[in-house]
Specification:
Blueprint lengths: L1 E7 L9 E7 L5 E9 L4 H20 L6 H25 L7 E2 L1 E7 L2 E7 L3 E5 L4 E3 L6 H7 L5 H5 L20 E6 L5 E5 L1 H4 L4 H7 L8 H11 L6 E7 L1
Antiparallel strand pairs: 1-11, 2-3, 3-4, 3-5, 5-6, 6-9, 7-8, 7-10, 10-11
Length: about 240
């Protein structure tokens, strides 16, 4: 597996509240976690960093070769639940951290088999040479409006409440996690990202930026494009390919 990643605070924000971690086991199985923190002062940064750390440690500790898919899902769920408890407990212990939380999107990649876990609006895409498919569905107010047929997908792209999410790790004692299983075909790339990318770079531009075969330039290229389009938020990108 090939993995490349980059995070950047953008050109508007003073601090980077995104966090990520990636890894690969000896047998080539790869994993990645991307978090986008929220909260006053530095609380978002604390939430995302802690969540990424706890999830990563749980995956490294819990993984063993030849795991069945159901066991992988249980491992990811346990890791994210553990992170939710730690972030929530920390937020309750210090008044200045009260209400902090983070999105999470986590991927397990074994050859062409991909398992995604997520909560919030950080996304996973499968990108081919000429197409892109969003694997995750945002947990957001605007996505709920789309689901109910009250607005179109086009209207959702520019909705003023686009940044309001309906699920986040660390905000409540319990967290509902969505899981998706998909296939990563030859010449396709798995992209995990925060909304600093998805809100500033179009899907067609993501496809365009990932089609020339210069794999280890991909993350840097996407971050630069988000910044050139305004860079109004922190940007994190992880790209994984066979």
């Amino acid at each position: 597996m090939k993995v490349v990643a980059k995070t950047d605070k953008g050109i508007v924000r003073d601090i980077n509240e995104d966090a990520y971690n990636v890894g690969e086991f000896d047998n080539g199985v790869s994993w990645a976690v991307v978090c986008d923190g929220m909260g006053g002062a530095a609380a978002g940064n604390i939430a995302s960093s802690l969540a990424a750390k706890v999830i990563s440690e749980r995956i490294k500790k819990g993984y063993h070769e030849k795991m069945r898919d159901a066991s992988v899902i249980n491992m990811l769920e346990s890791a994210i639940i553990a992170a939710n408890i730690e972030v929530y407990d920390l937020s309750r212990s210090r008044s200045e951290l009260r209400g902090m939380g983070t999105t999470v999107v986590c991927a397990y990649v074994d050859g062409d088999n991909v398992i995604i876990a997520h909560a919030g609006d950080s996304r996973a895409y499968i990108v081919g040479d000429d197409d892109i498919r969003q694997v995750t569905t945002d947990h957001s107010m605007v996505q709920d409006l789309v689901k109910r047929g009250e607005i179109t997908l086009e209207e959702a792209e520019h909705h003023p409440n686009k940044n309001i999410i309906t699920r986040a790790l660390g905000v409540d004692e319990e967290l509902e996690i969505d899981f998706t299983q998909t296939v990563l075909n030859e010449n396709e790339k798995l992209v995990l990202c925060t909304d600093g990318l998805s809100n500033y770079v179009s899907k067609s531009d993501i496809v365009s930026d990932l089609k020339d075969g210069q794999f280890y330039a991909y993350a840097d290229r996407l971050v630069k494009r988000a910044n050139s389009n305004g860079g109004g938020d922190n940007i994190t990108v992880v790209v994984i390919s066979n």
